[in-house]
What we know:
The protein is of the alpha+beta class and 234 residues long. It has 7 helices and 10 strands. The chain has helices spanning 6-37, 39-45, 48-75, 81-85, 89-94, 154-161, 218-231, and strands spanning 97-99, 104-107, 113-116, 121-124, 130-135, 141-148, 168-176, 179-188, 191-202, 205-213. Strands 1-4-5-6-10-9-8-7 form an 8-stranded antiparallel sheet, sandwiched between helices. A two-stranded antiparallel sheet has the order 2-3. Strand 5 (130-135) and strand 6 (141-148) form a beta hairpin. Helix 1 (6-37) packs antiparallel against helix 2 and helix 1 runs antiparallel to helix 3 (48-75). The model is unreliable at 1-8 and 40-44 (pLDDT under 50).
Amino acid sequence: MDNKPVWRTILSVVLGLFAIFRIATTCNKNSSSSSSSSNSSYSSNYQPQSYQSVTSAIEESKNNYRNNIQNISNDIFYESYDSINKLGDSEMTIYHIKKVKKDTLLPLDLSAKLNVEANSYIQKNYDDSLKLAVKLPDNTSIFMHSYEAKNGDALDNLKALKKKKSIQNISLKLDQPNSKFVSYNYQQNGKKYNGYALISKEDGQYTSIEFENNKLSKEELEMKTFKFLAQLTK
Length: 234
């Protein structure tokens, strides 16, 4: 996210929708006024094309709003823990974010659960490749992506997932036919983020779990990553 507050982005979209709604209302009022004057006047002033144009504009604004929310939602857990902690209740609802009050077992699928500590934030999506995100109090972000890919290998797909971050220094730690464990890093807002990702493939379906932090050293994050991944093998 840029420095522009989230609420301002949402407000600008809402105001845009409101302006279009007012235009549509004005057009309807003018049409009604013309109708009360005379049928011939109504016929000359009422233009179906104008109504269709306004309707199309409203639908386009709605789509832009949904896309904007989705983009912000996908990026928000790349921000600091303190930034997420400042979000209001309405924003938390919009972005499907919840704060856990105590240590919680978070199901990843039917057989695997992740133990997240108290005061962590979790985000669940159901209509995008980003299925789950977790923000731990120590500023560690955990992302779980699930997607289909017919072209490219695991590393190409990871780069595509992280294209906004332009990840660099990708290093293979484990290289198996259907799974890879890699390290990487990237720069954001003048800060260096270390990352580790476990990528697995089954029948063309990829699952990627990424661990990232800008405060822990590479070695500390690696140990933390192993600790969480060990939970998934139980």
